[in-house]
Amino acid sequence: MPTLQRDGLVGPRTGPASAAPWGAATAVAAVVVVGLVASVVAARYSGAVDALPGGLTDAGPVVRWSLPLVRVVHDVAASLTIGSLLLAATMIPGRTRAESAALDEPRRAAAFRVATAAAFVWAVAGGVGVVFTFADAAGMPLADPLFGSNLTGSVWSIEPLRVGLISTVVAFVVASVAAVSRARSVAVGLTVLSAFGLLVLGLAGHAGGSADHETAVNAMAAHLLSAAVWVGGLLALVVLRRPLGDALGVVARRYSTVALWCFVALGVSGVMSATTRLGSWSDLATPYGVLVLVKVLAFAALGVAGVWHRRVTLDRIDAADAADPAAATTGAADTADATHATDTTDAPASSVRGRLFARLALVETLVMGLAFGVATALARSEPPVPELVADPSAALSLTGYPVPSAPTALSWLTAWRVEWLFLATGLLAIGLYVSGVVRLRRRGDAWPVLRTLSWVVGWLLFVYATNGALGIYGRVAFSWHMTLHMLEAMVVPIFLVLAAPMTLALRTVRPRRDGTIGPREMLLALIHSRFLAVVGNPVFAAVLFFMSLVVFYWTGLFQLALETHTGHLLMTAHFVLTGYLFVWVLVGVDPGPKRWSPALRLVVLFATISFHAFFGVAMISGTTLLGGDFFPTIDIPWVPDRLADQRYGGGVAWAIGELPSLVLALTVAVQWFRSDSSESVRQDRRADRDGDAELTAYNARLAALARRDEGASR
């Protein structure tokens, strides 16, 4: 089980190394040491490291005690890796800040060096953790002669070992690439890859019969990522404070905004996670509940410190920099050496920044280590609410939910089961879009109401599809699943694309003037990237849209999506994104690669419709049940003929796909008509201005040709 389900650290700092009484290595060591001590105390208190009762096979005290300790090192290293890469990718000012490469490259290079070292530690700790996890699960001491052979034979078949191995490999890849690269684009990619290596620990797998499994998994994933970004960002600021020099104030302020988002995500996910493991308020008196309370106190303390920094420290740092402009000249010297500092050579503003930085950094770092250790012990402690349900049904074991009752006509409106991740995604998307529209109107700019309505309707349909009847019955019956698929891939994207979200973002998100990378800069980079030039080709988008259907349903991917929460999430994301891309290349109004002519886009659309029809016919005439043994295993009583239900699903795919295709064709035709009308109006206006010089020149040319032909005939 992943254990980075802890509260992180908020509040940016600034200041050179010389202003703090402890160095970068000391800060990281302090986190690790406090985390190890807290883990030992908490694990002993909760009984997480006690020998198994009843004489059950036990791997020994070395394994029991080493597992939480190794996990502390693993989590600190993973957080520092993500934090360092995030700073290098988005927060360290680049050349657009009108500064020389001498100040730009060493800063990012220092962040890459920290990420390299941290990722290698992450990889080693992950590998050791895999070994100890197997020993603990198998009850085999490390000295057992059969230990090595059993480990190699089971490492990929046992899910906790498999995801641990994947995370370890990801960490090694990140460390290897970071060691030889300094480009900002590489930092962005490695940040995403590192986040995946951490998320796989929380999302992968499916506890058979787990109570409220998907809520617990979603909460764990959000907790993992938000904690890593929050904690890792602060640690990176501590470690990199001297190489950043005078840019540390800019980086700290950018990090502060990210930390605030992480604070909210961490708090919400922590509450959700606790509610799945604590049945009542009285459970807070159990050893597990006491450790949860300790985490809550640490979370509150760190939040208060973060508020103090946002309201007081950052402003004082800015005031100190403004009072001593000469401090900017110290940045180049600071970047030359990231390991040595003296209290007598720093400029006055640097000293002020250092004192402000050190005021809370040490205390917060120690509290962070405490949260790490307690969370590690929590992961190995028995919660008051059992995580497994006695004698689960096949449907409960494979989907996480019992078999739903037979659907009725009213089920389309009355059947609801909240899927918190998809619900939060939809509400957040609507909230951000509406806030952008409000910002436009406040400054006197107009935005079409139909676009706003289209965006809201699209996300409400998505929320309904994932939380309503389709989300419930689509997990156990093929025909309902195909209806869900068609809605997510062919209906929702039309509304989202016509809302022009990228155009709204470019008009409302402020550009950054300090050389850092924000949402607007990332969006512009994507719009002008070679990647979008390739995937934005209508032929590529159409082939991806159709072929992904074939690959998904006629391989093991479909069964994986039905049986695992991770597969279900990836399936939903794939349906929506490929559908969005296909619709966007046909009727999108957002900026991007050069648009094909409407005639060619219609050709692509009609060809895709034809292939989609073949897809539906293949399912209607198919004689092999898709999804492997999933549907026979769950054996839904109100689906007596599973093959007939699959054929009905093929008919749904064929029928539902026609109406969105017709809407797309009509939209392309309307855009074609508007384009021609606009061109005609433009030409008429130009003719009014220049006396129709173009037509006059054309007629003169025809007359000249006529005279030439007449002369030739004579």
What does this molecule look like?
This protein is mainly α. It folds into 2 domains: 17-325 and 348-379, no CATH class; 419-511 and 518-674, no CATH class. It is 73% helix and 0% strand. It contains 27 helices and no strands. Helix 3 packs antiparallel against helix 5 (159-178). The longest helix has 49 residues, at 642-690. It is globular and about 110 Å long. The model is unreliable at 1-22, 96-103, 205-211 and 326-347 (pLDDT under 50).
Short description:
This protein is mostly helical and 714 residues long. The protein is built from 27 helices and no strands. The protein has two domains: 341 residues, no CATH class; 250 residues, no CATH class.
Keywords:
mainly alpha, 27 helices, single chain, disordered N terminus
Number of helices: 27
Give the N-to-C terminal Cα separation.
97 Å
Count of individual beta strands: 0
Mean pLDDT, to the nearest integer, reads 80
Largest sheet, strands/sense/barrel: none
Q: State the shape.
A: globular
Strand content: under 5%
Secondary-structure element pattern, one letter each = HHHHHHHHHHHHHHHHHHHHHHHHHHH
Helix content: over 70%
Structural class, from secondary structure content? mainly alpha
Radius of gyration: 30 Å
* Low-confidence segments: 1-22, 96-103, 205-211, 326-347
